[in-house]
Write a structure and sequence with these properties.
The complex is a heterodimer. By secondary structure, chain A is α+β, with helices and mostly antiparallel strands. Chain A contains twelve helices and four strands. A four-stranded antiparallel β-sheet of chain A has the order 2-1-4-3. Chain A is elongated, with a radius of gyration of 25 Å. Chain B is built from seven helices and two strands. In chain B, helix 3 runs antiparallel to helix 4 and helix 5 packs across helix 7. The longest helix of chain B is centred in the middle third of the chain and has 63 residues. Classes of the chains: A alpha+beta, B mainly alpha. The interface between A and B is large, with 42 and 37 residues.
Chain lengths: ~270, ~220
């Protein structure tokens, strides 16, 4: 929905009537923008928000207006006024859909605001659920990760999709495991990495076996202690590289075996 | 009980018992399966043992030998099965513990890497950059790093923080990273100075380093 040009600043200005009076006004969009930024850097959030609103009300067509609407929402977020911030981000997204980079940030920041409020505010839960259908992968995944904190089952399909995105695969894998769901990569993972962990302090000394899809091989490093990773470096074993090549390694290949005083971890492809 | 494991026939249950590698990944489901198998085998075993007691009694004596043999035949496999299942259950619990530790470690490392790289970026920003045309400061490399870190920051925000104070530091860094990421790569000297002072005023580099050390357990 597109709002008429003059309505948005009016809404933004009228929505928060309890803010303190403005600091001494300066003329011009640029000066107001600079003044608001200085206030923001000084953590004077209320005043900064008020100046941004003045700028938007007085200079709605200024080239500074889109940025100001974004930073107004960001200021409210910094001030932990989560509901107001998410509403202001929504206004910004609707009013300035052509601001590509800012829109992406606004969508992600709004997901965070909803994430904070999802325990208390049903509309925040709904906002997150709606964000699961956004165009941008990173926004969908961020919303799913937030919902996963509350173990909301609606997050699972998006988290499973997120396993295919290199930037979010590990976060999605962790979230799925924390929700008690199995990370699944059916067609892309014809083989598994098998991690055998033999804990030395346990009696009897049983080996615990963990299977990880080879497509999620980087997750294996979380089963290695810092000492074992250091040992790998000393021995010249490039753990990350070996794991990234696991998909093409022949079955039965032992990638590496690392030891520390607590456990011995052996990693093979099967 | 998870309905996925309640409809399996004896052959499949025994196959699962002998092949733990075929068990589901989820530790909780493994524990459930272990319980179900234990119950199933115990009932099978005791069912045979109970059968003679409900059958008509024979009057002839000298039954102790076959009876003892029957008891041994029942108790032997049952004891083995119970022992084996107890091992499996203990494995499932070890597995759940190790999975939990791995998740925590992964979370700590992701946050630690973010703080390390952010501290590095703050340090880089304190150095004098090369010049763009028109006397501007060339911050294209730093801006690229800031964009990547901003993305990581969004993801960490969604995952939750591992230690107290980490979220506040991340939020402060996030605000600074947003400023850089949303600027052009070439900054006026005034703007460049402003962003440097912002980082210094909040001691962003120092805070990030402290958080990183805390996550490594070097600092309490």
């Amino acid at each position: 929905m597109k709002l008429p040009l003059l309505v948005v600043p009016a809404i933004l200005a009228g929505a928060f009537p309890n803010e303190p009076p403005l600091p001494a006004p300066k003329d011009g969009a640029d000066q107001l923008f600079k003044q608001a930024r200085d206030l923001r850097y000084a953590a004077r959030w209320y005043e900064a928000a008020a100046v941004y609103r003045t700028l938007l009300a007085k200079y709605p067509d200024s080239p500074r207006a889109p940025e100001s609407a974004f930073w107004l929402a960001a200021t409210l977020e910094e001030d932990q006024r989560w509901d107001e911030a998410s509403a202001a981000y929504t206004q910004f997204i609707r009013r300035y859909p052509d601001q590509r980079l800012l829109i992406r940030e606004a969508q992600l920041n709004r997901v965070r605001c909803w994430g904070v409020r999802q325990w208390d505010e049903p509309s925040a839960q709904e906002g997150l659920a709606e964000a699961l259908g956004e165009d941008r992968d990173e926004v969908r995944v961020a919303a799913a990760l937030q919902l996963a904190k509350r173990k909301d089952g609606r997050a699972v399909p998006v988290l499973q999709e997120g396993l295919r995105l290199p930037a979010s695969a590990e976060a999605c894998r962790q979230a799925l495991l924390a929700m008690g769901a199995k990370p699944e990569l059916p067609e892309s993972a014809p083989r598994f990495i098998v991690v055998r962990i033999r804990e030395k302090k346990q009696t009897p000394q049983d080996t615990v076996t963990v299977r990880v899809s080879a497509a999620l091989a980087q997750g294996v490093t979380s089963y290695l202690s810092d000492t074992q990773l250091r040992e790998a470096r000393v021995k010249g074993i490039d753990v990350q590289r070996l794991l990234s090549e696991a998909l093409s390694a022949p079955k039965g290949t032992e990638l590496f075996s690392l030891d520390d005083p607590d456990s011995k971890v052996t990693v093979t492809v099967e | 009980m998870n309905p996925a494991y309640t409809h399996l026939d004896d052959a499949r249950l025994l196959e699962l018992l002998e092949h733990p590698e075929l068990w589901p990944e989820d530790a909780a489901a493994q524990a459930e399966l272990a319980e179900l198998l234990e119950l199933h085998l115990a009932m099978s075993a005791h069912g045979e043992a109970l059968a003679p007691s409900v059958a008509p009694r024979r009057s002839w004596g000298g039954v102790w030998l076959p009876a003892a043999a029957a008891v041994l035949m029942v108790l032997g496999p049952t004891a083995y099965a119970v022992h084996h299942l107890s091992d499996l259950r203990s494995q499932a619990s070890d597995r759940a513990r190790l999975d939990g530790a791995a998740l925590k470690r992964a979370q700590d490392r992701a946050w630690g890497a973010f703080f390390d790289q952010a501290a590095g970026l703050v340090r880089d920003f304190e150095k004098r950059p090369p010049s763009c045309q028109r006397g501007e400061e060339d911050r294209r490399v730093e801006r690229e790093t800031a964009v990547a870190l901003l993305e990581a920051s969004h993801q960490l925000a969604a995952q939750g923080s591992p230690i107290t104070g980490a979220e506040n530091t991340r939020t402060d860094l996030h605000a600074w990273l947003s400023e850089i990421a949303l600027e052009d790569g070439c900054l006026s000297p005034e703007r460049d100075k402003e962003l440097r002072q912002y980082a210094m005023a909040k001691d962003l580099g120092g805070e990030a380093e402290r958080m990183s050390r805390r996550l490594q357990g070097v600092e309490p």
